[in-house]
Amino acid sequence: MSTITAQPLPYGLEREKHIEMLFRAFHRRWRSSTDPQELTSAPAPAQGPLYGDLSSTFHAAETLPAGLAALRTVNQMHITSIPELRGPQCISRRTYRVATETRQLFLAVEESSCICMQCCGPARACSLQGFDQDRQKIFQFERPLRTDMCCLGCCLMEMRAYTAQRELIGTVHQRWSMFTPYFEVCDSADSPFLRIQGSCCPIRCLSDQEFQVVSMIGERIGTVWKKWPGYNEAFNMDHEHFGLDVSQNMNVNTKVLLLAGTFLLNHMFFEMS
């Protein structure tokens, strides 16, 4: 276990070159589909009777970067895995494109270690960073190493969400459940305010899947989903299309936390390779 957890993350010049390459590839698409003025001047969301409580969970007045400000008017996020070159070398990095139906929002780069990626698979420890169209880091998700398929109530999965300044936004915790997947979305004080629930027998392949996001009193307010695109002989990646549906007027920090939960569910239930 110590060998796995001691593996360094691939930070430094290699990561910077990788991010630079990605943004060169998608820079033209971003410029044509996203208006920077629209991102920075999005109107403040209206407070409804249900989501006003969620918005008040985070009290600090925010000056959001452009990438996160775009989430104010977003009610659906599509996440697509960008295939990496496969070969004899170890691939310790995965890249995801996060977009709406009409425009690109940002890139998310997952970094782990070769040993952890190959030996731990869905239970791997990783760091996942989000970058906006100006190549600025806007959030970071961190997932510690846990035991896959643990049924004893210990070593359950979690994903922590941070701002670019390393301020904790909150944590998505897996809770012990006998029959159905069950997660709690907690704020920075580790107080739960949302739940994510799945079906009794989630299947990783050959089917569409849905996890329901509900309030603490059981009202449905969102959905984490995965669409089965069919077998791909080139990459064999069944996890390349998943996403999140939420209310448009939900608090931005809550959307970021649910996005962290979406990536956690992808690792645990969606991906195969």
Distinct helical segment count: 7
**pLDDT < 50 stretches:** 1-11, 30-61
CATH architecture: Alpha-Beta Barrel
Overall radius of gyration: 18 Å
Secondary structure category: alpha+beta
* Relative helix content: 10-25%
Could you tell me the CATH topology label. Tubby Protein, Chain A
First-residue to last-residue Cα separation: 22 Å
State the order of secondary-structure elements, H for helix, E for strand: HHHHHEEEHEEEEEEEEEH
Spatial arrangement of strands, main beta sheet: 1-2-3-4-5-6-7-8-9-10-11-12
Globally, the shape reads globular
Per DSSP E runs of 2 or more residues, the count of β-strands stands at 12
What's the pLDDT, averaged over the residues?
A: 75
The description of the largest β-sheet is:
12 strands, antiparallel, barrel
Q: What share of the residues does DSSP label as strand, in percent?
A: 25-35%
Q: How many distinct folded domains?
A: 1
CATH C-level category: Alpha Beta
Task: Walk me through this protein's architecture.
It is a single chain. With about 270 residues, the protein is α+β, with helices and mostly antiparallel strands. It has a twelve-stranded antiparallel beta barrel. Mean pLDDT is about 75; it is low at about 1-10 and about 30-60. The chain contains seven helices and twelve strands. It has helices at about 1-5, 15-35, 35-40, 50-55, 65-70, 115-120, 250-270, and strands spanning about 75-80, 95-100, 105-110, 125-130, 135-145, 160-165, 170-175, 180-185, 190-195, 210-215, 220-225, 240-245. The chain has a single domain (about 1-85, about 90-270), classed as Tubby Protein, Chain A.
